[in-house]
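Course exercise 7: structure representation. Students receive a sequence record and must write out the corresponding structure in token form. The form below is the worked example handed out in class, using Putative E3 ubiquitin-protein ligase HERC4 (262 residues). Read each field label carefully; the graders check that inputs and outputs are placed in the correct fields and that the protein name is recorded exactly as given.

STUDENT ID: A-19
EXERCISE PROTEIN: Putative E3 ubiquitin-protein ligase HERC4
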Amino acid sequence: MFSFWVSSWWLPASHPSRLCREHVRQLSYSKRLLVDGYTSTDSSGNRRIGALKQSKRLLRSGLNANRQRDVPTHVGAVVAVSASNFHTCAVRSDGQLVCFAANADGQCEVPTDLGAVVAVSAGAGHTCAVRSDGQLVCFGENTYGQCDVPTDLGAVVAVSAGVYHKCAVRSDGQLVCFGENTYGQCDVPTDLGAVVAVSTGYLHTCAGRSDGQLVCFGANSCGQCDVSEANALAAASEEHGRWTAHPVHSPPSGGRGRPSFH
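STUDENT ANSWER:
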């Protein structure tokens, strides 16, 4: 049985399709990540999801106004994929990064000297990739410094690109976040310790510590950082030998494109 981890975020009023959306990540029974995408809660039901078949061929479905699900014919076999709101990136079996669809901010302009990569994360108008030597490379929209990789970052083993901020896990397990920090989504707790996984939302960040503890920080208007409840749900799901979907309801707009966060 599959499961969904869901976190909601609200699009700014200036966004061409100001809808409340849910970020969906689907896991297999073995907890291997299969799907990473966005589904709309609007009545039109527009959605876009990218998935890997067992044969490593890239599948796609959903909204295609910016051709974000038109997989280039030369992509071939892939080992990883990340889909943002209007562009998609995939890592080929030879390590080459391929990005396609909307490119207004250069989020699909893969540097010619990038080389082989082992991981990729697509944000809103920007992209980050981890090279085979552990170096983090980011390109695209940089209004909030979300592509300004710290010079002292060192080698990383994982990266997650949010809407306006990014977080990376260093080879020593230290979590480093940069970009927009209005709601403390980049304020890594000083006592966090080593982490093994990270996922960035719209205005918040969650990390899995080496001891298995989940820690979240940043905006919490929908309870997206209420870890105690999340841990209880996870424990209950594991007790039944499966993972269960627990969607988070989106906040009302109140006549504005972005609600107030606490």
